[in-house]
Every structure is written in structure tokens, then in C-alpha cells.
């Protein structure tokens, strides 16, 4: 039986895992920060360039302002947050997150490369609705028009809520609410008809593209980062940003390709170190990991230390100079990190020859496959059975080594 068949069979027999509050909150924060950064930045750039072009049609001029429509318009924020905590499984939560994330970034690139301005005059109705509009104008300026993110999000909201609303009254309530949300973008004079049509197309595209997935789509994130870098360089026409793009874009695309193929050997780490050509080609990626490691170890998580799982098995992060002396002198080092060079004191030809240093790279963020866990168990268990102390580590000590330690202790 092939590895693919074995994994597929295992997935078929394994029930979908329930989404945890921690996962829901992490994905919510990721998308909220992503939206805020992109939306405010593109708004600011459009205002700074005094953008005046628009796609207002003749029919848009006859659309009246209906003040109470600010209520369904404002419901978008509530639904944005609610659905993260409404998702029952991790797969549903990740799919929703990826759809929102993709819509935000695709729309952001349109805002950056084709900025447009709302042509309706900003009107403040009387009473408390006027206060609601005033609050809206503080956050939502007259730019970031096409496509309408409000409409794209509304279709994604509908796609996820319709799966749980089984009764006819609930479905009618959902359809009516989403229809009002979409219509409110016109009747609050926040968007034109062209924005609504393209927003609906964007939402449907994200629903079709972003299928359920078992693991985080890391390759997609790197490709999106590459696209943003290229778009910013094109938009700004700044020499330094062009140089940064020229050096970073190939690296980001190669990392994305490695994650898409599941190539855990793409950095060609040997005896704990990367070849010179890898250090040059992947310099932005490797530098980012080194800075992240320094930030985690010395600022954010200085309390992370070597953790003793059993008398012979310890796990943790890549060690600092002062921590190496804490290891047993006869310890075997199992290095799961592909991105970080090993400390020179722990690797080298002699350590590799005596099996004191063994490198089994795993891609960061992605969970290990069943075959990878079995291969690591076959590597580590004989050492433990022979009485050899083992230090199992990844870069930060958060995920990869803990996954493997849980697997080892269960077997």
C-alpha cells in the first residue's frame, strides 16, 4: 500500500477534529490584523495621491440614501467575528479563514493598483443614525471601492451559515439578512453598482478556490506575500523597494514551491549547516527565521527551556551557548529544523559519524505526516532503548518536536 493510500485511509477513519477556541482566536486575529493593515494602508495611499477616478454609472446617481441601512451594513463586523466561533471543526474554521484571507488580499491588490473614489457626497443624517454614519466615516474613507469587500465577505458568510441553518424560517432569515447586507452597500452610499458586482464575483471566486484542507495552506501565504511585494514595488516605483523585490521574490516563490510539493529537503542542510549557495539564494527566508528565533528566545518567550519528557527524552528549541552544558555529555541530538543552522558544538563530521547528531528536517507549521512520525520513531526509539539520552529539537520548540514527542510517548 502506498503512503498516499495509507494516509487517505487513516483520514477516512479519523473523525474531523473539533475547532478549539485557541485556533478560532488565532485565525480571527490573523484576519483582523490582515484586514486592518491592508485596508488602512491602501486608504492612506489613495488619499495621499488624491485619487479622483471612479466607476460611477448613471444608475448610481438615482440610488437614494436610506439611513437605517447602516444597521445591516454594520452587521458585517459582527458576522466576521461570529463565524470564526461558529465553525464546528478545524477544517471548517481553516476554510473560512482562508476564504476571508484570500478575499482581503485580492481586493487589497485591486485597491492598490486601481484606486477609485466614491462619488456620492458624505451626508450625516439626523439623530443617532447620524452618529453611526459619523463613526463609519472615521474608519471607512471614500476609497477602497472596487471590488466591495463588504459584498465578498457577505457571500462567504452566507456560504458558511447556510450549512448549519436547516429549517425554512432560519434559511429565509439568512437569505434576507445577507440580501440586506449586500443592498446596504448601495443605500448607505458606500459603494457603486460596479463595486457590488465585482465584490460578488470575488466572493464566489474565493468560495470556489479555497476548498477544505487538513493543514495550513502555507504555500498560498508565501505566494500572497510575493504578490504583495511585487505590487508594492510596481506601485511605489521606489528603487530600494525594487531591489528588495528583486532579491526576495525568487526566495518567496521557491519556498512556496517547496511547501506545495512537501519538499522538506529544499534547504539542503548537511551536518547542521546550509551550503553557501543556499544561504545566498534563501537569505531573506533564513534571515527572517534567525530574527524570529532571536526575538522568541530573548524577548517574547525567554522562559522556553529544555523540557524533560522522560528520563532519557528531552525536547526544546535550538539551544543557545549557555544551554548546551545542560545536556548530558552522551546525548544524541535529533534536529528537526530545516531553517536554522545547528549550533557548531553539537554537530560536525565526528558527531554525525557517531550518530550523536542526526538531522531529520520537517517543514515548519505543517503537522508531520504519519510516515514521518513512524520514521522518526524508528530512529529515536532504538536510541532510548539502548539507554542513550536524546535531545529532540526544532527551531522554536513549539510545534514539531512536541508533535513527535507526543507520538513517541503514545508508542
TrEMBL record:
Q: Does the keyword Transmembrane apply?
A: yes
Matching entries from Pfam families are given as: PAP2_3
Q: Which GO terms describe its cellular component?
A: membrane
Q: Which residues cross the membrane?
A: 27-46, 66-85, 168-187, 218-235, 241-260
* Inositolphosphotransferase Aur1/Ipt1 domain sequence ranges: 78-208
Q: Which UniProt keywords apply?
A: Membrane, Transmembrane, Transmembrane helix
InterPro entries to which the protein is assigned, alphabetical: Aur1/Ipt1, Prot-tyrosine_phosphatase-like
Top-level taxon in the UniProt lineage:
Bacteria
Name of the molecule in the record: Phosphatase PAP2 family protein
